[in-house]
Design goal:
By secondary structure, this protein is of the alpha/beta class. The protein has 12 helices and 15 strands. The longest helix has 20 residues. The protein is globular. Bound molecules: nicotinamide-adenine-dinucleotide. The site of nicotinamide-adenine-dinucleotide (NAD) has 21 residues, from helix 3.
């Protein structure tokens, strides 16, 4: 089969006798000359292959320069599809050698949750800026270690909070800040899907996931309640449920929480692996607005007082990664920072503690 890579290889050898790697070198050289930062994706699973690598084809300020993987069988396909030279391919053993590779500016950690900390620390110690997927880790203590590793190595850290860079969600932040429709009163939000029968680590291995739907998707409902109120919670009560005991070992199946924020703002939040919900609905003194679906990769629909928000969708991951590069270049604060990731983990621990104890937990 003649594919692009083989074609380049044979053409280069036939015409100039030059090594085929020259072509890859040229591609990367050109992108660096365009001023783009090189990102290496670490952990080539569903999200890296389905969303991040495609997004890196449309980013303006960064590009997919390298990969780090524990699965050698994935390497040829990735190299071919994304024109990644051998010099930018690493495994989990030789990953630390990335320190001497100037083509990689940023490492993006996309592994199961409980592996975020070791890889983020190694990336920072190798002198790379780091993006780490949500949830930041499986405990607030581990999040603190990640933040301090990045600080000690003078590297920036972003958490993969794509929706903090998304236009509908930016609109919610603006409404809250400006009190466009008066003060926010109640935020109803739920992100759930029917995943109880899944075989992926997030449904089967609590030592990797750190919890059930709250860690995986409920975190978006928690996030939105913080930025749509423009406040930090002061207390939480919560209830968790399990109706299929043999599934989701060591994890909740459904969890619901009620959070109090300053100025009398209440959140009613939920997340489940046996439900189908994906919305945020905000009631204010003088009206209401809603995003539904709210947390998907695209197709978000915003409604304000019954009328469409008329906000176009865009590539969320590209916006997130481009913003991070701008933050690094301009030395500006990271919106989805490690501190935000840590804050969410503290609140998640509070929600779990409230559900376990039946008590109201104060932050
Ligand atoms: P996945 O299972 O599809 O991929 C995980 C990758 O990690 C795989 O390539 C796997 O080989 C690798 N890995 C390395 N060590 C492993 C180990 N010990 N056990 C299992 N896999 C191991 O998962 P995913 O859906 O791509 O999720 C990865 C991370 O991205 C998670 O933290 C998840 O929460 C996050 N995520 C974020 C979004 C988002 O919208 N921001 C969406 C999906 C996933």
């Amino acid at each position: 089969m003649v594919n692009r890579r083989n074609f380049i290889k044979s053409t280069a050898l036939a015409t100039a006798g030059a090594p085929w790697l020259l072509s890859d070198f040229n591609i990367h050289h050109r992108r660096r000359q365009e001023g783009k930062m090189g990102i290496a994706l670490l952990g080539l699973g569903g999200y890296a292959s389905g969303q991040l690598a495609p997004a890196l084809q449309v980013t303006k300020h960064c590009y997919l320069a390298g990969i780090v993987t524990g699965s050698p069988s994935k390497i040829p396909e990735w190299q071919e599809q994304y024109e990644i030279p051998d010099s930018n391919v690493y495994n989990y053993e030789n990953f630390d050698d990335i320190a001497s590779n100037d083509a990689i500016d940023i490492v993006y950690v996309v592994t199961p949750n409980a592996l975020h900390m070791p890889f983020v620390i190694r990336a920072a110690e190798a002198g790379k800026h780091v993006i780490c997927e949500k949830p930041m880790e499986i405990s607030s203590n581990r999040c603190r270690k990640m933040i301090s590793a990045c600080e000690q190595n003078n590297r920036r850290l972003q958490i993969g909070y794509r929706l903090r860079y998304e236009s509908h969600h930016r609109q919610l932040m603006e409404y809250a800040r400006n009190e466009t429709f008066g003060s926010v009163k109640v935020i109803d939000t739920n992100f759930s899907f029917y995943g109880v029968n899944g075989s992926n680590w997030r449904f089967t291995d609590a030592s990797l996931s750190g919890g059930g739907p709250l860690m995986d998707i409920g975190i978006y409902s928690l996030e939105v309640s913080r930025y749509a109120s423009d406040r930090e919670p002061i207390s939480v009560t919560a209830q968790s449920f399990k109706t299929i005991p043999e599934k989701l070992p060591g994890m909740e199946e459904s969890i619901f929480w009620q959070m109090e924020f300053p100025d009398g703002i209440i959140t009613n939040g939920g997340s489940s692996y046996v439900a189908r919900s994906n919305y945020v609905h905000i009631s204010t003194e003088k009206g209401w607005y809603r995003i539904d679906p709210a947390f998907s990769y695209g197709g978000l629909k915003g409604v304000v007082n019954g009328e469409s928000m008329n906000i176009p969708n865009h590539n969320q991951q590209a916006a997130q990664m481009d913003a991070f590069v701008q933050n690094i270049r301009n030395e500006t604060p990271v919106i989805g920072s490690g501190e935000e990731g840590l804050q969410d983990m503290i609140y998640i621990e509070g929600i779990y503690e409230a559900a376990r104890s039946g008590q109201k937990i104060r932050f």
